[in-house]
């Protein structure tokens, strides 16, 4: 029997976006930083990360692969929903995708965001993007967001396997460094409905992965949550330690090696292939510290099945049913609907003064 899809008549995959060729890089970075007053000279420096890989971010191809995997997974269980794709910062732009959905007669959809944790930049900003696009598109569909899924068994299990694989390439007793994107400490302080949600969720996911690895092997090891991709002015506090500084600490302590596990990312996009596979790998090599990087979920069947199941779960909940809500760890399942005051932006625009 096919799973019920109502009240939804479509699924939307919503992601960050990235440049597809060198001439896209500066306009893309201008989109990302619009309103922050960052000069083009600084953006060109950041752009070198992209130019080092041919001026193309891997994220769009990874989303195309995820779309294909989702389509196959939906078809396997007869989940007859079209899947659309829109981005925050590059083509296909979310507003254009919303216009396409409206033209196709889509009235209500559920959105999969390629960000698994609560924070302003990882959740509320995407919801604001959806609201802005809906205001710009006549007859735009209503769109509901899936719950945060970082502590879903499908997400955690994918990292358990990839971490075990990374550790198998390292000396016995090697440490684990769980890595995520740094954010301002003030943003973490207001993340989630009760604050500190960004760090709390990452700590909980890291603990769940560690516990399963210890259950399998009977071995304990050093584990830490560390950060990458810090940006912004140096006087603004961001979450620390940086992964490179942490590698120096591990080397100084005489750790035999380290598995770098990017639990903050769903696929191997620029922050992973540059900050970890390039910069952190160079740091580890300089220090003589053996390092192996665990894979992100990407199109791992466990992750794809999880996303499909979350669509079915949310549809059932919207029909007034009581579906199972799988999760691991101590925090419980994520919430379907965010509170109005959840994850506020750090700065709100000042209203323009009226002029005579």
From TrEMBL:
<keyword id="KW-0350">Heme biosynthesis</keyword>
<comment type="similarity">
    <text>Belongs to the ferrochelatase family.</text>
</comment>
<dbReference type="GO" id="GO:0006783">
    <property type="term" value="P:heme biosynthetic process"/>
</dbReference>
<dbReference type="InterPro" id="IPR001015">
    <property type="entry name" value="Ferrochelatase"/>
</dbReference>
<keyword id="KW-0479">Metal-binding</keyword>
<keyword id="KW-0963">Cytoplasm</keyword>
<keyword id="KW-0408">Iron</keyword>
<comment type="function">
    <text>Involved in coproporphyrin-dependent heme b biosynthesis. Catalyzes the insertion of ferrous iron into coproporphyrin III to form Fe-coproporphyrin III.</text>
</comment>
<keyword id="KW-0456">Lyase</keyword>
<feature type="binding site">
    <location>
        <position position="271"/>
    </location>
    <ligand>
        <name>Fe(2+)</name>
    </ligand>
</feature>
<dbReference type="InterPro" id="IPR033644">
    <property type="entry name" value="Ferrochelatase_C"/>
</dbReference>
<comment type="pathway">
    <text>Porphyrin-containing compound metabolism; protoheme biosynthesis.</text>
</comment>
<dbReference type="InterPro" id="IPR033659">
    <property type="entry name" value="Ferrochelatase_N"/>
</dbReference>
<feature type="binding site">
    <location>
        <position position="126"/>
    </location>
    <ligand>
        <name>Fe-coproporphyrin III</name>
    </ligand>
</feature>
<feature type="binding site">
    <location>
        <position position="57"/>
    </location>
    <ligand>
        <name>Fe-coproporphyrin III</name>
    </ligand>
</feature>
<keyword id="KW-0627">Porphyrin biosynthesis</keyword>
<dbReference type="GO" id="GO:0005737">
    <property type="term" value="C:cytoplasm"/>
</dbReference>
<dbReference type="GO" id="GO:0046872">
    <property type="term" value="F:metal ion binding"/>
</dbReference>
<dbReference type="Pfam" id="PF00762">
    <property type="entry name" value="Ferrochelatase"/>
</dbReference>
<feature type="binding site">
    <location>
        <position position="181"/>
    </location>
    <ligand>
        <name>Fe(2+)</name>
    </ligand>
</feature>
<dbReference type="GO" id="GO:0004325">
    <property type="term" value="F:ferrochelatase activity"/>
</dbReference>
<protein>
    <recommendedName>
        <fullName>Coproporphyrin III ferrochelatase</fullName>
        <ecNumber>4.99.1.9</ecNumber>
    </recommendedName>
</protein>
């Amino acid at each position: 029997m096919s799973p019920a899809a109502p009240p939804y008549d479509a699924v939307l995959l919503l992601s960050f976006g990235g440049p597809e060729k060198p001439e896209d890089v500066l306009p893309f970075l201008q989109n990302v930083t619009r309103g922050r007053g960052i000069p083009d000279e600084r953006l060109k420096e950041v752009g070198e990360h992209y130019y080092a890989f041919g001026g193309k971010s891997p994220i769009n191809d990874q989303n195309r692969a995820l779309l294909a995997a989702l389509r196959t997974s939906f078809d396997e269980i007869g989940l007859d929903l079209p899947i659309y794709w829109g981005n925050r910062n590059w083509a296909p732009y979310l507003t254009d995708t919303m216009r396409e959905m409206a033209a196709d007669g889509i009235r209500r959809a559920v959105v999969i965001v390629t960000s698994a944790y609560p924070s302003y930049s990882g959740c509320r900003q995407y919801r604001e993007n959806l609201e802005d696009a809906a205001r710009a598109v006549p007859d735009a569909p209503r769109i509901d967001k899936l719950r945060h899924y970082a502590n879903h068994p499908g997400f955690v299990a994918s990292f358990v396997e990839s971490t075990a694989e990374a550790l198998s390439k390292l000396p016995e007793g090697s440490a684990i460094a769980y890595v995520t994107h740094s954010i301002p400490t003030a943003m973490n302080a207001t993340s989630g409905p009760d604050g500190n949600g960004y760090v709390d969720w990452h700590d909980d996911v890291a603990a769940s992965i560690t516990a399963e690895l210890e259950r399998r092997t009977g071995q304990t090891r050093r584990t830490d949550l560390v950060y990458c991709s810090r940006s912004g002015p140096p006087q603004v506090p961001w979450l620390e330690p940086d992964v490179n500084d942490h590698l120096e600490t591990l080397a100084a302590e005489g750790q035999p090696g380290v598995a770098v596990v990017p639990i903050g990312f769903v696929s191997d996009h620029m922050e992973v292939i540059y900050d970890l596979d390039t910069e952190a790998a160079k740091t580890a090599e300089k220090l003589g510290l053996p390092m192996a990087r665990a894979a992100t979920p990407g199109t791992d069947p466990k992750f794809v099945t999880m996303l499909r199941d979350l669509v079915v779960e949310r549809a059932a909940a919207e029909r007034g049913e009581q579906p199972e809500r799988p999760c691991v760890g101590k925090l419980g399942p994520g919430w379907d609907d965010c509170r109005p005051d959840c994850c506020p932006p750090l700065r709100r625009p000042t209203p323009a003064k009226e002029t005579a």
